[in-house]
Amino acid sequence: MEAKVLELMCLLPPPPLSTRSVVLARLPLLPYPSPFKPKYSAHSVLRRSTSKDEPLIDGLPKEYYDDEWQARQREKTKELHRRRQDEEEEEERKVEEYREIGMRLKGYPEEDVKKARKLVASFILAAEEVEEKIEEAAEKGELTELVLMVIWNRRDLARRDEEKDAIRSLDLLYRRVETEILKREATPAMRLLNDLLNMHDGFDDEGWLKECKKCMIDTFPREDPFSILVPAGLDIDKHQGPLRPPLEADDALLRVDFVREVDALLQEVKFEQSEAQNAQGLDPESVASRLKQQEKQQTIRQVEALLDLAINLKW
């Protein structure tokens, strides 16, 4: 009986909708807040959390809830990372430079390197007696290219460490040793030129030229026709004296050789000076470069004066 009643209920048509239901279906949906939608945004939550009414989380500073403060902290962190990276790169560069400086002496025998280092150390400790030490080493033949390389390495290390006094002292020592080596290896004409330049006191040019003229007269053999035909010391009237020139006359420096070598040196130096560009800045390197150029120009003028004196020399 109950089954038949259920079948009859299923066959019945659905009841019509009420007027209230139809009206509600036609009305637009109103934007009622959903219980699952957040009521406040993230920024409003941060602002609400930093308000005086609500307590902060224990252990966190107030700035932690400030977006601007966090942005500044991130920038500081990036800057620290950049500085650390720059310091590491600078340290690596210095280590590489030190390694390169140390590798310069690898091609020389170890025993020779030790001797050269001891010699350079003795120059540094000699203080006011360094000139005598250098000349003594030059006479013994101890001044070599290796000694210059050791001084150069010490100067580079001092430059890396920004030791200005050590740089200046080692630079002067390098120039002095180099000059002594060049002096020993130079030709007689270049040695005479160096001696004549060293006679200048920096003030009296006329007195210096007079002294140079006397030195040239004593150094160069006479070039008058009589001295060419007759050896020095022969009395042509009495027919007395040596008929042959002395053996040491073979090593005598002729005036023509001196003029030729000095003129070639001047041409070479002037060509290098014309190619060099003068620095115009006011930084220390530019000022030092200009001072060196002025010193070279002064030396060139002195060499030109000596060349003119040798060309017009009269006995």
Strand content: under 5%
Alpha-beta content class:
mainly alpha
Global geometry: elongated
Oligomer: single chain
| Major sheet size, sense and barrel closure | none
The chain-level mean pLDDT equals 75
* Fraction in helix: 55-70%
Number of strands: 0
Q: What Rg do the Cα atoms give?
A: 48 Å
Coiled coil: 70-147
Keywords: Coiled coil
Protein name: Protein PALE CRESS, chloroplastic
Organism: Carpinus fangiana
Could you list some keywords that capture this structure?
315 residues; elongated; Protein PALE CRESS, chloroplastic; PALE_CRESS; coiled coil
Question: How is this structure best described in words?
Answer:
Helix content is about 65%, strand content about 0%. Helix 5 packs antiparallel against helix 6 (about 130-140) and helix 7 (about 145-160) packs antiparallel against helix 8 (about 165-185). Residues about 1-15 and about 15-55 have low confidence and may be disordered. It has about 325 residues and is an all-alpha fold. It contains 13 helices and no strands. The protein has a domain at about 185-240 and about 250-315.
